[in-house]
């Protein structure tokens, strides 16, 4: 491991008052297997890789103007670019102005640890008095993630604010088949009625006894009438009546059908026994 | 004379009614009542706004926050006191009870006086941490006042032109060329809680250190906080909308800092805006600003005049509206929400089914409320739903209004009739065919004369 | 003929006096049936019992208050919060409508009687009708008129039926058993006469039965089974065809009118036998017709073809429709009838109900007493004759016995047929030994020459007609019957007359002490909580809370949504940190638990706890594990040795919270589990005790609101207890504040 010297602070400090700067700035990453890479701050193009078990060490010598001196504040700032979150790490400073700081992934706050972009590291040096402080970009650090080790999860805390809109997705309405098909089938069904009638007629069905039966007594009229009336009540129930409107009618018609029916059917039975049916 | 007095009382009462929403009894806790002179402008402003100010010290015997279970003050201001703890009348528990009873507290700290343990414990319960050993001083070697603190850098000069988050109410923000001066500031850090909002955050180069111990350099193991994580003034609003503010620099409220001129390095001298900031801060803390009130909530079937029914049917079209007004210093005014962040209506059962933005309705200039409304179709799921407006935004009191409505299923006679459904036509005609066939069969069965071949057979 | 015998003492019985006597006896039986069911009313008060009746009662009140159509479309927003329940479409309305009709008739007659009293007394009233129905059914089986009366008497007081029909037990079974027996009577009548009218009446009452009780499936399966057995015995007849097809066609239509049943009769496997037999009968009828039309040789070939084809097509169709999802396969409840362990593994919610457990054999004797051994005798007697209707009794008795053995609750369906068969056996016995006595005695005295054929065998002193054997048998029979009556009365009084809402215990001096904790707690809820405060409790108490406290509940005894019940189970069996968000999400205001530790009341929630765990585990096997509630040695413990999962579960904490304060230090004991409890009681943070009843049976906890200043409940509670906030080293990385 070698420390490459020399670093000139960024420009802009060209005012009359002296300002803080540093020299010998270097960053070094030590892996577990004692493999290390070191960089000087000047080569900021390269991104420093910090692995799971690695240790990152930053060292420098702070200077007031050109004289090495201990400042009050010497921070290494790590910044997550997207959110702008920053974490400061104070350097341990000696009287001579030499300062170091070491950090591992464990020292990073969760938001920086889970950052996918490289972190921006900068140095802040300042102290009391009139000497100007200095902020300088130093290098970028990328956090390497070991896929075999479970990563800590970061859940954004609740903040009061607008939430995304939600629109309920409704279930589809039930669909009917095309009307024409329904219509064809409906007609086909209705067509069975005349067919049945024709069939009956072909078998010799007739209403010849109707006049005779009706003239015999009122029971036949009542009976047949009550059957038709019952169907009528059913139709009214279908088309709008309520149950409790229907029930009285049905019971009356049912009673009529029962009383007249026993008479009328008795007559039918007599006819049958007489061989007229 | 008497009438004059009563008139004065009446006038006072009318002033009183114009003050904070929650009341005008303000308690100021300070070391020595005489100290109030240095804050005369602040308290003068408060008194002008109608607050009835009582000054007291923590050592006082008859200091009492509660009497018979009722608050005796509506607001408290804590100025730095030299006592180690605030004593039995102001324990953290009592302070917390005060907040739970909707009392507002403003805590002003100073780096020159260590915060009392009671304050530290109280603030810790809210998720606000102060530096170790109750002392800490925020310095910033980049943004200090070159006039008063050119050597020590302990008077911060900030311009607070943007709210912490872009969608927040910018009630505390200043113009770009306006500055605040914060002398001898104690920083604090905030927990992750959603009830906390920083008002002033330290610049990213600022840090807090213990001036007694770390004179030479910052001790890396003892760094409390630095940069934007370090808050200088913060707001806390409890769930009952009681407010607590912490201000790191009590001195900035003093008269002398109200009109001092400050300058940053390389800048020209400008007057501070401390007076305005103090007014906003106290006004916000004591519920003169950012108080929302729900005036009316109405929901109804779209074509119905019956308001707020308890039961709807699935897929009903419902109109929902809520009227909000906002208290601003002395009057209720229509609340105009940020057009990009309107109140939202949630229709939820266990989880939201709908979350809809409410649109402001047209209103006239004389209105004191603003109505937000939306039309929606209830979900096709029966259950007990909440029509909930959960409008919680930093710096506004919370609006969380739930209307519980039952959404019932379709009743048996609300379905489309079967003749409307084309798919049912074959079935309906089937019924018709059966019925007519049955009637005809009856007739034939009863009245038929034996057919000829049959007759032959029987013969 | 026993009646005739009794009458004989008074003089020659005429037809009308017999009828009168029969009516009087039936009235007495009905009176006895009603009277023996009134123990609970006399001992406690006119109160609705147990769990389900409370819902029926509440529904009836709703019906009476809002009318039939509102009831039909009732959306109940006070149960199953926040899902609600489409109550009108998911209940059997027969019971409520019956009570409602009775109520309105009484109102019309200007008899102002409270709906509660109608509900309380409905079951006894219908038990009188059941006795009458049993009389009619038995009369169809035998010519002996005494059998019917005996059956009615048995039916009236058999504990197996009383268990579900005491006053206050306002449950579906209260009217369903009457309908069951009466439907069977009508079926037998229709079958005997081959009458469409009776078949239609049978269908009508079947429809009523469907409207009243889920057990209608029993009829739906027994009638086809009977028909099938008859056909297999070669007893196909026009009568069977007419009665069955009439019943099936009309009965199915009637049953489909009930919203809860809807299209089930054509969609589920449970109803398929009835449909299958319907089709089979058409086929048999058709074959019957063909046989009369064509020659024997052709007929055989025809028969085989038709049978094979039909069977194959029918089976294939059934399988295809089932696999396509048009016909629901057999439900879990059905499987549990064949495999008693099935429910425990697959549907814990069914297994957790005590009345779904297999029957212990003493229960048969307990519920039926002498009828148990009269049943085989009656069956044998019927088997000797074996007319069509006897086949029915035999089929029914065999199936009923099996089902009663599988599930305690089905003892109820077995009881009617046991009464019928036992009555036939008993009356045969009594007839044999009593009837002929006067004439017989004289003839035997007069000598054997004139003796009719029957007297031949009774010549010896030990023969059937000898005085000794008569006295012995009749005496023994009388003793048995008296014992039966006293047993029934004893069982009714001791086992079946407790409302279970109110508990009775005996004081040392023998006086009765009423433990009324349930009503105390429900009354507290009613008076001290908001109208819409949601109460979370285990589902057993849902109906009672709804009925007595009138507060919304999360789950209740209508266990239609297993997930929702599992959610409650999870909340009860998890740590507070897990339970609290669940309770918040469901807007729970209060939690109600039953704790019997102080009183030694064993039906408490800790004893039911494992069912909660099991049901929750069924939905969240990762989060709730039954194993964690048992110690390493597999014991279920609540004392010091309890597992951490157990000790941290909400149910455990709620049960034993503050319990230690009742005892001297270190002496706390649980009287149900009979163990010493740890000296340190559990600490609750997210809920707080709201109410505990006198005997600690019910404990009510209030769910705390979120902390006003945003702390979690654990640190808030610690702060309230005065504990200093410790700067605990947080594990894991630091978190920056994000705004």
UniProtKB/TrEMBL annotation, chain A:
One of its GO terms (biological process) is protein N-linked glycosylation. GO terms for cellular component: oligosaccharyltransferase complex. Keywords: Endoplasmic reticulum, Membrane, Signal, Transmembrane, Transmembrane helix. It is found in: Endoplasmic reticulum membrane. It is a multi-pass membrane protein. It comes from Emericellopsis atlantica. InterPro entries: Ribophorin_II_C, Swp1. Residues 1-19 form the signal peptide. This is Oligosaccharyltransferase subunit Ribophorin II-domain-containing protein. It holds the Pfam family Ribophorin_II_C. The chain crosses the membrane at residues 180-201, 213-237, 243-262. Residues 170-272 form the Ribophorin II C-terminal domain.
Automatic annotation (TrEMBL), chain B:
GO terms for biological process: protein N-linked glycosylation via asparagine. Pfam families: OST48_MD, OST48_N. InterPro entries: DDOST_48_kDa_subunit, OST48_MD, OST48_N. Pathway: Protein modification; protein glycosylation. The chain crosses the membrane at residues 424-447. It is found in: Endoplasmic reticulum membrane; Membrane. It comes from the Eukaryota. Residues 1-18 form the signal peptide. Residues 303-449 form the OST48 middle domain. One of its GO terms (cellular component) is oligosaccharyltransferase complex. Residues 25-285 form the OST48 N-terminal domain. It is a single-pass type I membrane protein. Keywords: Endoplasmic reticulum, Membrane, Signal, Transmembrane, Transmembrane helix. PANTHER family: DOLICHYL-DIPHOSPHOOLIGOSACCHARIDE--PROTEIN GLYCOSYLTRANSFERASE 48 KDA SUBUNIT (PTHR10830). Component of the oligosaccharyltransferase (OST) complex. Subunit of the oligosaccharyl transferase (OST) complex that catalyzes the initial transfer of a defined glycan (Glc(3)Man(9)GlcNAc(2) in eukaryotes) from the lipid carrier dolichol-pyrophosphate to an asparagine residue within an Asn-X-Ser/Thr consensus motif in nascent polypeptide chains, the first step in protein N-glycosylation. N-glycosylation occurs cotranslationally and the complex associates with the Sec61 complex at the channel-forming translocon complex that mediates protein translocation across the endoplasmic reticulum (ER). Belongs to the DDOST 48 kDa subunit family. This is Dolichyl-diphosphooligosaccharide--protein glycosyltransferase subunit WBP1. It comes from Emericellopsis atlantica. The lineage of its organism: Eukaryota, Fungi, Dikarya, Ascomycota, Pezizomycotina.
UniProtKB/TrEMBL annotation, chain C:
It catalyses: a di-trans,poly-cis-dolichyl diphosphooligosaccharide + L-asparaginyl-[protein] = N(4)-(oligosaccharide-(1->4)-N-acetyl-beta-D-glucosaminyl-(1->4)-N-acetyl-beta-D-glucosaminyl)-L-asparaginyl-[protein] + a di-trans,poly-cis-dolichyl diphosphate + H(+). Gene3D superfamilies: 3.40.50.12610. Residues 446-456 have a biased composition (Basic and acidic residues). Residues 534-584 form the STT3/PglB/AglB core domain. Its cofactor is Mg(2+); Mn(2+). Residues 440-460 are annotated as: Disordered. GO terms for molecular function: dolichyl-diphosphooligosaccharide-protein glycotransferase activity; metal ion binding. Keywords: Endoplasmic reticulum, Glycoprotein, Glycosyltransferase, Magnesium, Manganese, Membrane, Metal-binding, Transferase, Transmembrane, Transmembrane helix. Belongs to the STT3 family. Catalytic subunit of the oligosaccharyl transferase (OST) complex that catalyzes the initial transfer of a defined glycan (Glc(3)Man(9)GlcNAc(2) in eukaryotes) from the lipid carrier dolichol-pyrophosphate to an asparagine residue within an Asn-X-Ser/Thr consensus motif in nascent polypeptide chains, the first step in protein N-glycosylation. N-glycosylation occurs cotranslationally and the complex associates with the Sec61 complex at the channel-forming translocon complex that mediates protein translocation across the endoplasmic reticulum (ER). This is Dolichyl-diphosphooligosaccharide--protein glycosyltransferase subunit STT3.
